[in-house]
Automatic annotation (TrEMBL):
Co-factor(s): Mn(2+)
Record note on quaternary structure: Homodimer.
Single GO biological process annotation from the record: L-leucine biosynthetic process
PROSITE patterns, A to Z: AIPM_HOMOCIT_SYNTH_1, AIPM_HOMOCIT_SYNTH_2, PYR_CT
Keyword line: Acyltransferase, Amino-acid biosynthesis, Branched-chain amino acid biosynthesis, Cytoplasm, Leucine biosynthesis, Manganese, Metal-binding, Transferase
HAMAP family with a match to the protein in the record: LeuA_type1 (MF_01025)
Domain Pyruvate carboxyltransferase: 4-266
The protein's name in its UniProt record: 2-isopropylmalate synthase
Region annotation Regulatory domain: where it falls in the sequence: 390-499
Catalytic activity: 3-methyl-2-oxobutanoate + acetyl-CoA + H2O = (2S)-2-isopropylmalate + CoA + H(+)
Lineage top rank: taxon: Bacteria
Amino acid sequence: MRTIKIFDTTLRDGEQAPSCSMHLNEKIEIALALERLRVDVIEAGFAIASKGDFESIQKICEVVKGSTICSLARAVPKDIDAAYESLRNAKNARIHTFLATSPIHMQYKLKMAPEKVLATIGDMVRYAKKYLPDVEFSAEDAMRSEKEFLARALEAAIAAGATTVNVPDTVGYTTPMEMVEMLKYLQNNVRGIENVTVSVHCHNDLGLGVANSLAAISAGAGQIECTINGLGERAGNAAMEEIVMGIHTRKTYYGCETNIDTTQIYRSSRLVYNLLGLPPPINKAIVGANAFAHEAGIHQHGVLANRETYEIMTPQSIGLLNNEMVFGKHSGRHAVEKRLTELGYALSKEEVDELFDRFKQLADKKKTINDHDLEALANRTVVDAPAAFKLDRFTVSCGNYVTSSAVVRLNHEEKLLEEVAIGDGPIDAAYNAIDKMIPAPAHILEDYSIFSVTEGNDALGEVIVKIKCGDKNVIGRGLSTDIIEASIMAYVNGLNRLL
Ligand SMILES: CC(=O)SCCNC(=O)CCNC(=O)[C@H](O)C(C)(C)COP(=O)(O)OP(=O)(O)OC[C@H]1O[C@@H](n2cnc3c(N)ncnc32)[C@H](O)[C@@H]1OP(=O)(O)O
Ligand SMILES: CC(C)C(=O)C(=O)O
């Protein structure tokens, strides 16, 4: 049975999605989650794009040793130099260089004659090969390229030493049938293609990213490029969890498998949604809240008789646990730590200590604590910024006939600061008081969202704020059974990150 390589580009193409930029510690958390998933290749960034991108690739190379780390480069020497420099500490490294091959991209964007494009592909793949044996070449906009020209482009890359050739559907234009025809054509017309890995990279503009990727597998592709939750430029990339579970569930049909540990899927998906401050769509395939829920009577009746009447995968296969555990204020540290491990969290002793403190505070306010509460606590632990300012206490006064006011007290380096302010509602008043105390650079509150982590009157509320400061965006999170407290914590958390 063939093993399909999973190439994850959440940290590169995923990050290209509008307002989905990530900070270093968030990228490292995602890279570690990808390693636990046993992703074959992690595209960690585009080294030349910025100092931050370069440094995060470097750092990921230091901490992740189980997957190949890849850095993207245009087909120009300075990009390839930067890609290689960023990868120096990797155990296994890949340079990924690309050049567009479609008539529209060559004429209007690159302003390069087709013959020059072919020569550049050969030159730049050879240039990258001087650095590393593992070099991938992508023919950007391949699916709108003339197939005879695309075949020559891939042949030039293979002759120069590329070990993977990628056929991207850059603008999400193709169809499954067309993808199959294109790969068959290339297999029959590109010299040396049988000696390299053929990859596809499908975008989702027409909602066909996953379908086109799975069609490519049927036509012999050996690597699929994808992202967690389908994050990515415009409508996104093909979603990893959908491709992997597609293969896993229909193994005999596709005649292949992947190296992915599917039980890490749910947790990795939640981590990415959480870090980006995005709520998971309830009907999202595989990881949405409704993916394994049955409400219709006929379905419930069928599932009671035999689960497989309406379920083609088990929740356990993606890491959802079936033995729901309930914790409370009498629970001990060992049981909480064990449950976190079962949920897929590998926390250090310090992280467990810090989480357990917050667990006890929560248990004082909330009768029962379930897996979703624990996940919310754990996700906050793994990505939190050092807190220069901490909420000590607050009072708010509000009503529909009075001006809202707030008194907020913060703890800063063992000193207590206190301010009072008015505003359009209690949260605005509290935020105005905080702004008087935290010396953050000029910023605007761009977005505020509130979610309920669990159900019931004592549910944990999670507030996510997006704060914009120049061209920098930060996300702040707050978690509490009191939504005003969660709102204040989120704003303070965001401003700490900004500092
Ligand atoms: C399909 C994809 O997803 S490709 C990846 C897209 N991702 C990104 O662009 C995010 C990171 N990008 C960046 O930070 C910047 O665009 C940089 C640093 C790469 C380049 O920045 P700038 O030098 O300011 O150039 P700018 O982005 O305006 O234009 C791109 C230039 O690269 C050229 N170019 C584009 N693709 C390639 C390529 N594959 N190989 C060589 N040159 C290329 C363009 O023709 C243009 O050249 P020009 O400046 O001579 O006109
Ligand atoms: C760089 C390539 C692989 C890409 O992102 C695309 O074509 O969409």
